[in-house]
C-alpha cells in the first residue's frame, strides 16, 4: 500500500506541523480534534507555519495555497477515520486519553488503515492491544520544526508487520523526511536516547560549578563543530520540559540534587529558555550566535 | 607573569602540535624528548604539520619558516628546563614515568617556572605533590588537531594559585586557543565528560541492534545540525581507544557486553577506524560526507 490520505489526530504544535508537512508534500490530510475551539487553534497554527515554509523552504504563495487546500479539519470521528490510509495520533501523552482514542478509531477505521503514534514517551507495545489491528500499529515520531529537523523515527512493537514498517518508511521519504528505523523498542528512540543523557551531563557540569554554561557550549561547538552547545539546546527545549525529564530520570540520584535545584531556581525566576526570552542565554540574538563567541 | 618561553616535554602527536602552535603564535619553544631518535621523530612530525597550517590556516611559507626557527629540540634536561617560563608535559600516561619526570624537573627548573600537564586521564592533584611547586602546577589540555580544535582546557587542583590559572588563561589566548577553565577537578575535563558517555550511548544502540550506525549518525546530524555523528567520531578517535575507554567504564556492566564484543570483533577484523581506512565508514570520502547521506 502507498499512503495517499492521512488523518492527523490532534492539531497541537506537532500535530499541525505533521499535517502541514504532509499536505505540503502533496498528500490529502484531515486534522481531527475534539471540538471547534481546538480546530480553530489548529487552523491558526497552520496559518503561522506559512512564514516558516516561506523563509526556510522558499515556498511560493502557490505552494502555500495548495498546501492549505489539501487540509480539511473535522471533529467528526466518522469523517476523520472512516476512509483513510494512515492515522497519525498526536494527542496528549496521557494513558487514558490514548486508550480511549484507540478504542474509538478501532470501531470506525477501514481494515486497510495503519495506525501510528507520534508519542515521545510511550512504546508501541503499550497501546497495540488497545487497537483492533496490532500488526498495523507502530510509532512514527517527528521532531519539532519538522521541515528543518526532518527525521521520522519509525518504531514497531514485536508484533508489527514488517510490511507496515516498509510502508511507513516509504511514506516518510515521500513527505521529505529521513526515515530513522528503530529496529527494537527503545524508550526515546534514537534522538532522545542520545540527547537526554547528553543534556543531563552538561547540566551537571554547571550544577556542580565545574564549568559555566558558556564554557561548556564553546567546547562542544569548537571541538564538535556543532552550531550550538547543550545549554543552547536546553533553552530551545525549554527549562520546564528539561526539568521534568531530568527529575524523572535523576530525581533520586544525589549527584543531581544541586543541578536540579539550580534548574528549579531558574524556572522560579522566569528564566524558561527561548520561550520566555531568557534562559542560559538572552533572546533574540543569543551570545552563542555572535561571531565573537568562539574568539 | 606573561609566558614567553615554553618547553614541551614529549614530541609525540600532541606534543609536536602544541609546540608548533605555540611557536606559530610567536613564542620561543623547546621540545624535550629522551633521545635523538625521539627528537628526530618529533622533527618529522613538525615538518608534516606544515601542510595542515598551509591548508587550514592559510599560513605562508614565511610563517612556516619563522615557526620552525622558533623551535629548538634537545634531550638535555638542563637546557630544556633550566630557564623557561612554562613547561607543558605531554609524556606517556604512565604514573611512574610522570612521577620520575616531575622529580627530575623540580630539581632543575627556575622558581618562576609553571608546570602544566596535558594529561587526558590524570587529575592535577595526582602529581602536584611530586613537584616542588604544587601551587604552580595545573593541567593544560589540548585536543588533537589543535589548530582547528582550538580549545585549551585549564584545570587546577585545590592548591593551584589562582594567578597561575590566570597566567595560563592569558597564555591560551595568546596562542589562539579558547581557554576552557574547569573550575574544579573533573575527570575528562569538559569535552570528554560530554563526549565519552555520548559515544557509549550511541554504540549501545548499535550493539543492541536498535539502530544502525548510519541511522544514528543521520539522526544526530539532522536534528543537531552537527557535521558528523557519533560513529564518525568513534572512527576518528579510533576503535582501539574507544574500546579501551568503554571497557574501563562499562566492562562490568552487563548492558554493554554485546556492544563491547561487537567493537572487539571490529578490531579483530582490522576495522580500526580512520587510521586503518575502515571502521564504521570507509576512508577516504566516507559516506557521511557525501551530499546524499541526509537525503
Secondary structure topology:
The structure is a homodimer of 295-residue chains.
Chain A: E1 5-9, H1 13-24, E2 28-32, H2 36-57, H3 61-69, E3 71-74, H4 77-81, E4 86-89, H5 95-106, E5 114-117, E6 137-142, E7 151-156, H6 162-174, E8 178-182, H7 191-207, H8 213-224, H9 230-237, H10 239-250, H11 257-268
Parallel strand pairs in A: 1-2, 1-4, 2-3, 4-5, 5-6, 7-8
Antiparallel strand pairs in A: 6-7
Helix pairs in contact in A: 1-2, 1-3, 7-9, 7-11, 9-10, 10-11
Mean pLDDT of chain A: 97
Task: Report the order of strands and helices of chain A.
Answer: EHEHHEHEHEEEHEHHHHH
CATH-wise, what's the superfamily of the largest domain in chain A?
NAD(P)-binding Rossmann-like Domain
CATH class of the largest domain in chain A: Alpha Beta
For this structure, the quaternary state is: homodimer
Q: State the secondary-structure class of chain A.
A: alpha/beta
Largest interface: A-B, 43 and 43 residues
Radius of gyration of chain A: 20 Å
The parts of chain A where pLDDT drops under 50 for at least 5 residues are: none
In CATH, the topology of the largest domain in chain A is named: Rossmann fold
Helix content of chain A: 40-55%
Whole-number count of domains of chain A: 2
What's the main sheet of chain A like? 8 strands, mixed
Describe what this molecule looks like in 3D.
The mean pLDDT of chain A is 97. Chain A has helices spanning 13-24, 36-57, 61-69, 77-81, 95-106, 162-174, 191-207, 213-224, 230-237, 239-250, 257-268, and strands at residues 5-9, 28-32, 71-74, 86-89, 114-117, 137-142, 151-156, 178-182. The first copy, chain A, is globular, with a radius of gyration of 20 Å. An 8-stranded mixed beta sheet of chain A has the order 3-2-1-4-5-6-7-8. Chain A starts with a strand and ends in a 27-residue tail after the last helix. In chain A, helix 6 (162-174) links the parallel strand 7 (151-156) and strand 8. Chain A folds into 2 domains: 5-182, Rossmann fold (3-Layer(aba) Sandwich), CATH 3.40.50.720; 193-289, N-(1-d-carboxylethyl)-l-norvaline Dehydrogenase, domain 2 (Orthogonal Bundle), CATH 1.10.1040.10. Chain A has 11 helices and 8 strands. Chain A is 45% helix and 13% strand. By secondary structure, the first copy, chain A, is of the alpha/beta class. In chain A, helix 10 runs antiparallel to helix 11. Chain A binds chain B through residues 143, 149-151, 153, 178, 180-184, 186, 190-191, 193-195, 197-198, 201-202, 205, 208-212, 215-216, 218-220, 222-228, 230, 233, 294-295, and chain B through 143, 149-151, 153, 178, 180-184, 186, 190-191, 193-195, 197-198, 201-202, 205, 208-212, 215-216, 218-220, 222-228, 230, 233, 294-295.
